[in-house]
Structures are given as structure tokens and as C-alpha cells.
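Entry type: protein chain
Record version: 2
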Amino acid sequence: MSAEFSAFPSGQLPTHAADFTLDPAEVAKGGAAASSYLRSIKDADARKPTEEALEIVALLMSNGVCDKSDFPWQQVRSHHAQAALSLLKQEGTPSRVESIRCQRDQNRRFQPVPTTYSTTQLQKARSSLHRVLMECRDLGFISELECDRTIHPPKTKMSRSSRLKPFNYGEMRALVATSARHESAAGARDSLLFYLLFHGALKLSELLSLAVQDLLFDQELQLLTLCTGKTTKRAPKNGKRPAKKSKSANGSAIAYERVVPLPNEALIALEDWLEVRGAEDGPLLCPTKKSGRVEQRRMTGEEVRTICQKRAVQAGVEFFTLEDLRKGALAAQESQQDAASAEQAYNGASVVPSALYGGQCEDEAALVEGRIYFPYMSAQERN
């Protein structure tokens, strides 16, 4: 089996780890777990709503690429489950699933569906997903610890040493999707915050020092330049380049700028936040009140850490520190650079702009065959 994609999610490169890979062996494991679970339900009347629930979850998480029998259930992790269950609660999701079914079956006619799923359907989806994951555990496809984390995501802060794996791109997307679903000033700000932290690999001090007047955008190249506020006498690493000399209090320091290639949905998040905050000069990221009012002051480090912890719990992402996030971002950037260098050496030509700027090249649809990225970006949900 191979997955077919009409478009590659903007801003994602093949070097970013996919959430689900459709290797035949992995698909067979997922199918075996689903079949084993459904066979355990002897009552045919009870089995039918369970099959329907698993079908809906599989179609939603794969965007129609897989159904319940060929989805790699053992690859589902806590932030995937949280995102899927949250999407199921949204208004319009039944119509979206029905549209996916019609796309998969050309002979199917669009069936009238309710605006939202009922509480009973949501509970059935949750329990069916948890039971098929338990079946994956019993068959030895996932560890007991991973299964327990997915079914019972932690509600309290975990110690740093308990993190099972490095922070990855899928977790960043889960945090962004969770923030975007909260249609509020805080949601818009938090989406932008995670984009900047991951794509810019910013340190906390650099993030907090950002101001609106520090943003320089190149419309043609879709590049954002950030003046991080750091000053040094020597050119630092990590992609910074010298800017105009800016004397500090002692008259000897030189400021540096950082070029940050942001995907389209990150630029949309920036526009959304500036629409709420206002485009006047001052701190870029500001605290917000419950009423939605934006306080025109710089955020503190503790406020940023609290946001990360809150969104991690909501998205089902394993607890992370800002240093964990930055290391994951740097690792992703290094893998992109390695892939771009390899492509340049292979072709004997210049690296394509999409590899540098997060765009889309002609062959990217083929490169992602057999991969699924979930949760989907907020910009795609709007479209």
C-alpha cells in the first residue's frame, strides 16, 4: 500500500520525522491489532458502533489515506490521541469526515450529517482508540509505558530526566494546533511563540527581547529577519549574520541579526497576533488577560514556561523544558542542512530554494509517499 498526497504540508520538509509511516510491516501490525480487538466483541450490534468509531478516527488522523484496517495504530502517541479527540469535538468535523469518505469512494453520495458528534459518539471514539492501543500493547507492538502514557497523559509536571525522547517536529505541531484551536488572544500568541522557538531555535532571552520593530520581512523570499538583541564583538554561530554596527552603553558592541525561514502558517500566526496586539512598536510577545486584553509589556521567563507546560498538558505532549525544545529545533535544522547538502552534491547544482526557505518543490509529493503528518497545521484547517 502507498499513500497518495495531493499537496505537501507547507513548511514541512522530508527531513522532519513523519508522525505515521506506512511501511507494509507497520500497516500489518495496525491491522492485526484492530482485527483482534473487533473479534473480541462477540455481539454484532455492539461491534458495529466500535467499527464506525475506529473508522472515523483513522480517516481523521490520516486525512483519508487509511481506514481502520490499514492504519498503524501502534504508532499513535499521546499528543496524536489528544489532537484527534479534540478535533472530533469541533463543529463541522462530521462533514469533513463524510467528505473524506466520498473522496475515497467515488460511488458514495454525500450523506446528511449533524454539525457535531454526539457525546455518545465521542465517548465511543475515545474508548475504541484506547482499547485498540491496549491490544497493540498486548501483542507486543508498543511498550506498556508508552501505552499508559497515551491512554493516561500526565496531568502534572514531570521531571526533565523522565522525558522518553528528544523534542520533535510533530510535538511542535501538536502544540501549535492546540493553541490555534483556542480562538483567543492567548491562542494566537502561543501559536506564534512555538513557531518562533522551533523555527528560530531561539533562547529564552532572545525570545523575550524581541520587539515588533525587530521584524524585517522579505516578501519575495518569504524570509523573516529577527534582531535578537544579542551583542558581541565576533560573529556567532547558528546562522546569525552581522548587522549594522550598534554601539551599546560602552560603545564597543556589535548587534547581530538572525534570518529565520518561516512556513506560511507561521506568517499567518504572526499576522493574527499582530491584529490582536496591534502593530505599534514594543515587545512582540505580551501577556493577555482572560478578557482578551493585551498588556503592553514584556513577558517574563516564568510566564513562557507556564505557557509551555499548559499547552503540553492540553496537547498530550510529554513535558519539555525550553532547552529540550531548542535542542530539538537545532537537530531539525541540522538534518535539513545535511539533506540540502546531499541534494546539492547529488544534482551537482544549486540547492533548490524550497529546501532553504520551507517552500514546496515539484518532487515533494513523491518524497512523502507513505508518510502521514498529524495534527494538520492550523492554516490548513482554516482552508
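Comment: The chain has two domains: 20-165, 169-357.
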